[in-house]
Amino acid sequence: MRLDHTGIAVRRIDEAIEFYTNVLGGKLTERYTSEKPGVETHIAVIEMENQVIELLEPTSRTSPIERFIRQNGKGVHHLAYEVDNLLETIKDFESRGYTFLKDTYRINPFGRRLIYMNPVHSQGQIIELCDYVSLDE
């Protein structure tokens, strides 16, 4: 398991992209919007030397990112860890008593399969587990 990316909740994604690219020298590699219920977020992926930042701006008042910002303010939303096989990892973790927020399971437009763990297991920190699959699967 390795750190895949850090998700950061922001209010103004264009300003955040400007900062991470022009000030910190990152490169914008993906930008898209997910209007799926339970996501409702503008997403920008910034690659920096050995790290990836995922900027998250809510697109509606019902977005989980909007709820996060109201409760916690802007900043680190989640840490994402890449696993070899997401479905096998979920089964393994569940067999050991860990639970997941099942409604968060999805495949993003770039082939990242992901799910969020129940934050009760991580002292409140939101943890995403992910792997990468072919979009043809």
UniProtKB/TrEMBL annotation:
<keyword id="KW-0479">Metal-binding</keyword>
<dbReference type="Pfam" id="PF13669">
    <property type="entry name" value="Glyoxalase_4"/>
</dbReference>
<protein>
    <submittedName>
        <fullName>Glyoxalase</fullName>
    </submittedName>
</protein>
<dbReference type="InterPro" id="IPR029068">
    <property type="entry name" value="Glyas_Bleomycin-R_OHBP_Dase"/>
</dbReference>
<dbReference type="GO" id="GO:0046491">
    <property type="term" value="P:L-methylmalonyl-CoA metabolic process"/>
</dbReference>
<dbReference type="InterPro" id="IPR051785">
    <property type="entry name" value="MMCE/EMCE_epimerase"/>
</dbReference>
<dbReference type="InterPro" id="IPR017515">
    <property type="entry name" value="MeMalonyl-CoA_epimerase"/>
</dbReference>
<comment type="similarity">
    <text>Belongs to the methylmalonyl-CoA epimerase family.</text>
</comment>
<dbReference type="GO" id="GO:0004493">
    <property type="term" value="F:methylmalonyl-CoA epimerase activity"/>
</dbReference>
<dbReference type="GO" id="GO:0046872">
    <property type="term" value="F:metal ion binding"/>
</dbReference>
<feature type="domain" description="VOC">
    <location>
        <begin position="2"/>
        <end position="132"/>
    </location>
</feature>
<dbReference type="InterPro" id="IPR037523">
    <property type="entry name" value="VOC_core"/>
</dbReference>
